[in-house]
Amino acid sequence: MSTYRVAQVNEPNGTFELAEREVPQPGSGQVRIAVEACGVCHSDAAFVSAGLPGVSFPEVPGHEIAGHIEELGEGAQDRGWQVGDRVAVGWFGGSCGRCKPCREGDFIVCRNLKVPGWAYDGGFAEKVIAPVDAPARIPDAMSASDAGPMACAGVTVFNGLRRSSARPGDLIAVLGLGGLGHLGVQYAVAMGFETVAVARGAEKADFAKQLGAHHYVDSTSGTPVAEALQSLGGAKVVLATAGDSEAITAVVDGLAPRGELVVIGVDTAPLGVSPAQLLMSAYIVRGHPAGTSQDVEDTMAFSALHGIRPMTETVPLDRVDEAYQKMLAGKARFRMVLTVG
User: Fold this and answer.
1) List of residues 6+ apart from 19 with CB closer than 8 A
2) Which residue from 4, 97, 183, 329 lies 20 to 30 Å from 212 (Cα-Cα)?
3) What is the pTM of this model?
Protein backbone atom coordinates (compact mmCIF):
# COMPACT_ATOMS: atom_id res chain seq x y z
CA MET A 1 0.00 0.00 0.00
CA SER A 2 1.38 3.40 -1.02
CA THR A 3 1.10 6.15 1.57
CA TYR A 4 1.75 9.89 1.88
CA ARG A 5 2.07 12.34 4.76
CA VAL A 6 -0.28 15.12 5.82
CA ALA A 7 0.06 17.74 8.56
CA GLN A 8 -3.24 17.83 10.41
CA VAL A 9 -4.87 19.19 13.54
CA ASN A 10 -7.25 16.83 15.30
CA GLU A 11 -9.29 19.41 17.19
CA PRO A 12 -9.92 23.17 17.00
CA ASN A 13 -6.70 25.10 17.72
CA GLY A 14 -4.83 21.84 18.17
CA THR A 15 -1.16 21.26 17.49
CA PHE A 16 -0.16 20.04 14.06
CA GLU A 17 0.74 16.38 13.81
CA LEU A 18 2.08 14.38 10.87
CA ALA A 19 -0.07 11.44 9.79
CA GLU A 20 0.19 8.86 7.04
CA ARG A 21 -2.69 8.11 4.72
CA GLU A 22 -3.25 5.83 1.79
CA VAL A 23 -2.63 7.58 -1.53
CA PRO A 24 -6.06 8.38 -3.06
CA GLN A 25 -6.95 8.00 -6.71
CA PRO A 26 -8.35 11.10 -8.46
CA GLY A 27 -11.98 10.76 -9.41
CA SER A 28 -13.75 12.00 -12.50
CA GLY A 29 -12.90 15.65 -13.11
CA GLN A 30 -10.02 15.62 -10.65
CA VAL A 31 -6.22 15.59 -10.66
CA ARG A 32 -3.74 14.44 -8.05
CA ILE A 33 -0.97 16.93 -7.36
CA ALA A 34 2.40 16.09 -5.85
CA VAL A 35 2.92 19.06 -3.54
CA GLU A 36 6.34 20.73 -3.63
CA ALA A 37 5.52 23.82 -1.56
CA CYS A 38 2.60 25.39 0.27
CA GLY A 39 2.35 28.87 1.74
CA VAL A 40 1.01 29.45 5.24
CA CYS A 41 -1.72 32.09 5.01
CA HIS A 42 -3.36 33.88 7.92
CA SER A 43 -6.70 32.62 6.61
CA ASP A 44 -5.57 29.10 7.53
CA ALA A 45 -6.23 30.08 11.14
CA ALA A 46 -9.96 30.27 10.36
CA PHE A 47 -9.89 26.58 9.48
CA VAL A 48 -7.60 25.45 12.30
CA SER A 49 -9.80 27.25 14.83
CA ALA A 50 -13.07 26.03 13.23
CA GLY A 51 -13.93 29.68 12.76
CA LEU A 52 -15.80 28.93 9.53
CA PRO A 53 -18.88 26.73 9.17
CA GLY A 54 -18.44 23.19 7.90
CA VAL A 55 -14.81 22.68 8.96
CA SER A 56 -14.31 19.05 10.02
CA PHE A 57 -11.49 17.36 11.88
CA PRO A 58 -8.87 16.11 11.40
CA GLU A 59 -8.23 19.28 9.41
CA VAL A 60 -5.50 19.63 6.75
CA PRO A 61 -5.24 23.33 5.80
CA GLY A 62 -3.24 24.99 3.04
CA HIS A 63 -4.48 26.95 0.02
CA GLU A 64 -1.21 28.27 -1.45
CA ILE A 65 -0.25 25.02 -3.14
CA ALA A 66 2.44 24.50 -5.77
CA GLY A 67 3.60 21.24 -7.29
CA HIS A 68 3.05 19.06 -10.34
CA ILE A 69 0.28 16.82 -11.58
CA GLU A 70 1.11 13.18 -11.03
CA GLU A 71 -2.16 11.50 -11.98
CA LEU A 72 -5.24 12.43 -14.00
CA GLY A 73 -8.81 11.45 -13.23
CA GLU A 74 -11.33 10.73 -15.96
CA GLY A 75 -11.90 13.79 -18.14
CA ALA A 76 -8.93 15.77 -16.82
CA GLN A 77 -6.98 15.33 -20.04
CA ASP A 78 -9.90 16.84 -21.94
CA ARG A 79 -9.32 20.01 -19.94
CA GLY A 80 -5.75 20.22 -21.26
CA TRP A 81 -3.87 18.74 -18.30
CA GLN A 82 -0.98 16.32 -18.58
CA VAL A 83 1.01 14.37 -16.03
CA GLY A 84 4.04 16.46 -15.08
CA ASP A 85 2.38 19.86 -15.58
CA ARG A 86 3.60 22.36 -12.96
CA VAL A 87 0.58 23.89 -11.24
CA ALA A 88 -0.54 26.06 -8.36
CA VAL A 89 -3.87 25.98 -6.50
CA GLY A 90 -5.01 28.86 -4.32
CA TRP A 91 -8.11 30.03 -2.44
CA PHE A 92 -10.00 29.28 -5.62
CA GLY A 93 -9.99 25.51 -5.41
CA GLY A 94 -12.82 24.87 -7.84
CA SER A 95 -16.38 26.03 -8.50
CA CYS A 96 -19.74 24.31 -8.79
CA GLY A 97 -20.54 25.61 -12.28
CA ARG A 98 -24.26 25.63 -11.41
CA CYS A 99 -24.99 28.66 -9.22
CA LYS A 100 -25.92 32.03 -10.71
CA PRO A 101 -22.45 33.63 -10.27
CA CYS A 102 -20.87 30.63 -12.03
CA ARG A 103 -23.40 30.77 -14.85
CA GLU A 104 -22.54 34.46 -15.23
CA GLY A 105 -18.82 33.59 -15.35
CA ASP A 106 -18.00 35.08 -11.95
CA PHE A 107 -16.46 31.91 -10.54
CA ILE A 108 -14.54 33.43 -7.61
CA VAL A 109 -17.83 34.26 -5.86
CA CYS A 110 -19.30 30.83 -6.54
CA ARG A 111 -21.92 30.06 -3.90
CA ASN A 112 -20.28 26.66 -3.41
CA LEU A 113 -16.64 27.68 -3.77
CA LYS A 114 -14.26 24.79 -3.08
CA VAL A 115 -11.49 26.22 -0.92
CA PRO A 116 -8.62 23.80 -0.18
CA GLY A 117 -8.55 23.06 3.52
CA TRP A 118 -12.29 23.69 3.72
CA ALA A 119 -13.98 21.77 0.91
CA TYR A 120 -11.21 19.17 0.75
CA ASP A 121 -7.80 18.47 2.29
CA GLY A 122 -5.37 21.29 1.66
CA GLY A 123 -1.71 21.57 0.79
CA PHE A 124 -0.06 20.94 4.17
CA ALA A 125 0.60 17.51 2.71
CA GLU A 126 2.65 15.61 0.17
CA LYS A 127 -0.32 15.15 -2.17
CA VAL A 128 -3.61 16.89 -2.91
CA ILE A 129 -6.66 15.86 -4.93
CA ALA A 130 -8.14 18.94 -6.66
CA PRO A 131 -10.90 19.62 -9.21
CA VAL A 132 -9.70 20.16 -12.78
CA ASP A 133 -10.73 23.82 -12.81
CA ALA A 134 -8.57 24.66 -9.77
CA PRO A 135 -4.96 24.44 -11.04
CA ALA A 136 -3.07 27.32 -12.66
CA ARG A 137 0.04 26.75 -14.76
CA ILE A 138 3.30 27.88 -13.18
CA PRO A 139 5.74 29.72 -15.49
CA ASP A 140 9.08 28.01 -16.05
CA ALA A 141 10.87 30.98 -14.50
CA MET A 142 9.07 30.64 -11.15
CA SER A 143 9.97 28.25 -8.35
CA ALA A 144 7.34 26.29 -6.45
CA SER A 145 8.12 28.15 -3.20
CA ASP A 146 7.40 31.46 -4.97
CA ALA A 147 4.37 30.18 -6.91
CA GLY A 148 2.49 28.92 -3.85
CA PRO A 149 1.98 32.35 -2.22
CA MET A 150 1.12 33.83 -5.62
CA ALA A 151 -1.98 31.59 -5.72
CA CYS A 152 -3.58 33.49 -2.83
CA ALA A 153 -1.62 36.51 -1.57
CA GLY A 154 -0.30 37.42 -5.00
CA VAL A 155 -3.52 37.11 -6.97
CA THR A 156 -5.54 38.94 -4.31
CA VAL A 157 -3.27 41.98 -4.50
CA PHE A 158 -2.74 41.84 -8.27
CA ASN A 159 -6.45 41.52 -9.02
CA GLY A 160 -7.36 44.14 -6.44
CA LEU A 161 -5.23 46.65 -8.33
CA ARG A 162 -5.95 45.69 -11.92
CA ARG A 163 -9.72 45.62 -11.35
CA SER A 164 -9.69 48.97 -9.56
CA SER A 165 -10.54 52.32 -11.11
CA ALA A 166 -6.88 53.45 -11.11
CA ARG A 167 -5.02 54.01 -14.37
CA PRO A 168 -1.27 54.38 -15.02
CA GLY A 169 -0.01 57.64 -13.58
CA ASP A 170 -2.69 57.79 -10.86
CA LEU A 171 -1.69 58.11 -7.22
CA ILE A 172 -2.49 54.92 -5.30
CA ALA A 173 -1.68 54.02 -1.70
CA VAL A 174 -0.92 50.57 -0.31
CA LEU A 175 -1.84 50.33 3.36
CA GLY A 176 0.41 47.82 5.11
CA LEU A 177 3.79 46.32 4.20
CA GLY A 178 3.27 42.72 5.29
CA GLY A 179 2.60 39.54 3.35
CA LEU A 180 0.11 41.26 1.05
CA GLY A 181 1.43 44.81 1.12
CA HIS A 182 5.02 44.08 0.11
CA LEU A 183 3.61 42.52 -3.06
CA GLY A 184 1.09 45.33 -3.49
CA VAL A 185 3.79 47.98 -3.69
CA GLN A 186 5.75 45.98 -6.28
CA TYR A 187 2.65 45.42 -8.44
CA ALA A 188 1.53 49.03 -8.17
CA VAL A 189 4.89 50.31 -9.35
CA ALA A 190 5.04 47.79 -12.20
CA MET A 191 1.53 48.82 -13.31
CA GLY A 192 2.67 52.42 -13.65
CA PHE A 193 1.00 53.97 -10.59
CA GLU A 194 2.54 56.71 -8.49
CA THR A 195 2.79 54.56 -5.40
CA VAL A 196 2.52 55.50 -1.72
CA ALA A 197 3.39 52.92 0.92
CA VAL A 198 1.66 53.43 4.27
CA ALA A 199 2.90 51.58 7.35
CA ARG A 200 3.81 51.99 11.01
CA GLY A 201 7.25 53.39 11.86
CA ALA A 202 9.87 55.56 10.20
CA GLU A 203 12.23 52.57 9.99
CA LYS A 204 10.10 51.04 7.21
CA ALA A 205 10.71 53.94 4.82
CA ASP A 206 13.88 52.45 3.36
CA PHE A 207 12.19 49.09 2.84
CA ALA A 208 9.28 50.79 1.06
CA LYS A 209 11.70 52.57 -1.26
CA GLN A 210 13.53 49.27 -1.93
CA LEU A 211 10.20 47.85 -3.10
CA GLY A 212 9.88 50.81 -5.48
CA ALA A 213 7.48 53.10 -3.60
CA HIS A 214 7.65 56.75 -4.66
CA HIS A 215 6.42 58.00 -1.26
CA TYR A 216 6.25 56.67 2.27
CA VAL A 217 3.76 57.67 4.97
CA ASP A 218 4.48 56.73 8.57
CA SER A 219 1.10 56.29 10.23
CA THR A 220 2.67 56.91 13.66
CA SER A 221 4.33 60.24 12.76
CA GLY A 222 1.62 62.47 14.23
CA THR A 223 0.33 63.64 10.86
CA PRO A 224 -2.96 61.86 10.09
CA VAL A 225 -2.60 59.44 7.16
CA ALA A 226 -5.54 61.03 5.34
CA GLU A 227 -3.90 64.46 5.62
CA ALA A 228 -0.59 63.08 4.32
CA LEU A 229 -2.34 61.53 1.32
CA GLN A 230 -4.23 64.75 0.57
CA SER A 231 -0.94 66.66 0.61
CA LEU A 232 0.08 64.44 -2.32
CA GLY A 233 -3.16 65.22 -4.15
CA GLY A 234 -5.39 62.47 -2.78
CA ALA A 235 -5.33 58.80 -3.71
CA LYS A 236 -7.34 57.49 -6.63
CA VAL A 237 -7.23 54.08 -4.92
CA VAL A 238 -6.20 52.88 -1.49
CA LEU A 239 -5.45 49.17 -1.41
CA ALA A 240 -6.00 48.19 2.23
CA THR A 241 -3.87 45.11 2.86
CA ALA A 242 -3.62 45.57 6.64
CA GLY A 243 -6.17 43.54 8.60
CA ASP A 244 -6.97 46.46 10.90
CA SER A 245 -10.33 48.22 10.62
CA GLU A 246 -9.12 51.26 12.58
CA ALA A 247 -6.15 51.76 10.25
CA ILE A 248 -8.36 51.27 7.19
CA THR A 249 -10.88 53.80 8.48
CA ALA A 250 -8.09 56.36 8.92
CA VAL A 251 -7.25 56.39 5.20
CA VAL A 252 -10.73 57.00 3.81
CA ASP A 253 -10.50 60.79 3.83
CA GLY A 254 -7.18 60.51 2.02
CA LEU A 255 -9.01 59.51 -1.16
CA ALA A 256 -9.40 61.88 -4.09
CA PRO A 257 -12.96 62.71 -5.16
CA ARG A 258 -14.56 59.53 -6.53
CA GLY A 259 -11.63 57.62 -5.05
CA GLU A 260 -11.90 53.95 -4.25
CA LEU A 261 -11.06 52.01 -1.10
CA VAL A 262 -10.29 48.38 -2.00
CA VAL A 263 -10.28 46.18 1.10
CA ILE A 264 -8.36 42.91 1.01
CA GLY A 265 -7.05 42.77 4.60
CA VAL A 266 -9.36 40.80 6.89
CA ASP A 267 -10.74 42.08 10.17
CA THR A 268 -14.05 41.26 11.86
CA ALA A 269 -14.45 44.73 13.41
CA PRO A 270 -16.64 47.16 11.45
CA LEU A 271 -15.21 50.07 9.50
CA GLY A 272 -15.93 53.53 10.91
CA VAL A 273 -17.10 55.11 7.67
CA SER A 274 -20.16 57.37 7.65
CA PRO A 275 -22.63 57.80 4.79
CA ALA A 276 -21.75 61.51 4.80
CA GLN A 277 -18.11 60.70 4.03
CA LEU A 278 -19.14 58.54 1.08
CA LEU A 279 -21.72 60.95 -0.30
CA MET A 280 -19.84 64.23 -0.17
CA SER A 281 -16.87 63.01 -2.22
CA ALA A 282 -18.55 60.09 -4.01
CA TYR A 283 -16.17 57.58 -2.46
CA ILE A 284 -16.41 53.90 -3.32
CA VAL A 285 -15.72 51.15 -0.77
CA ARG A 286 -15.53 47.53 -1.87
CA GLY A 287 -14.08 44.24 -0.86
CA HIS A 288 -12.07 42.12 -3.23
CA PRO A 289 -11.71 38.32 -3.07
CA ALA A 290 -8.77 36.38 -4.50
CA GLY A 291 -9.12 35.22 -8.11
CA THR A 292 -9.79 32.24 -10.32
CA SER A 293 -7.17 29.87 -11.66
CA GLN A 294 -6.89 32.05 -14.77
CA ASP A 295 -6.32 35.08 -12.55
CA VAL A 296 -3.58 33.16 -10.75
CA GLU A 297 -1.95 32.36 -14.10
CA ASP A 298 -2.13 36.04 -15.05
CA THR A 299 -0.59 37.00 -11.72
CA MET A 300 2.32 34.60 -12.10
CA ALA A 301 2.93 35.59 -15.73
CA PHE A 302 3.00 39.30 -14.81
CA SER A 303 5.28 38.55 -11.87
CA ALA A 304 7.68 36.56 -14.01
CA LEU A 305 7.77 39.34 -16.60
CA HIS A 306 8.53 42.06 -14.04
CA GLY A 307 10.72 40.09 -11.65
CA ILE A 308 8.22 40.29 -8.79
CA ARG A 309 8.49 37.59 -6.13
CA PRO A 310 7.15 37.15 -2.60
CA MET A 311 9.63 37.35 0.25
CA THR A 312 9.48 33.96 1.91
CA GLU A 313 10.90 31.81 4.67
CA THR A 314 10.90 28.11 3.80
CA VAL A 315 10.69 25.27 6.31
CA PRO A 316 10.15 21.54 5.76
CA LEU A 317 6.71 20.00 6.26
CA ASP A 318 7.74 18.32 9.50
CA ARG A 319 8.25 21.79 11.06
CA VAL A 320 4.74 22.91 10.16
CA ASP A 321 3.71 23.89 13.69
CA GLU A 322 6.75 26.16 14.00
CA ALA A 323 5.86 27.86 10.71
CA TYR A 324 2.20 28.23 11.65
CA GLN A 325 2.97 29.74 15.06
CA LYS A 326 5.45 32.19 13.50
CA MET A 327 2.75 33.30 11.05
CA LEU A 328 0.21 33.73 13.87
CA ALA A 329 2.66 35.81 15.88
CA GLY A 330 3.20 38.14 12.92
CA LYS A 331 6.91 37.33 12.81
CA ALA A 332 7.05 35.90 9.28
CA ARG A 333 9.03 37.96 6.75
CA PHE A 334 6.81 37.83 4.86
CA ARG A 335 5.37 34.46 3.96
CA MET A 336 6.09 31.14 5.62
CA VAL A 337 6.28 28.38 3.02
CA LEU A 338 6.31 24.66 3.72
CA THR A 339 8.50 22.62 1.40
CA VAL A 340 7.97 18.97 0.56
CA GLY A 341 10.50 16.49 -0.78
Assistant:
1) 5, 6, 7, 8, 58
2) 329
3) 0.96
Counting every residue written for the chain, the total comes to 341
Q: Which residues contact 16 (CB under 8 A, 6 or more apart)?
A: 7, 8, 9, 124, 320, 321, 324
The CA distance from 250 to 264, in Å, is 16
Residue 223 one-letter amino acid: T
Residue 288 is predicted with a pLDDT of 87
- Span 87-132, pLDDT tens digits: 999 999 999 999 999 999 999 999 999 999 999 999 999 999 999 9
Those residues with Cβ within 8 angstroms of residue 269's Cβ, 6 or more apart along the chain or in another chain: 245, 246
Give per-residue pLDDT as tens, 168-194.
Answer: 999 999 999 999 999 999 999 999 999
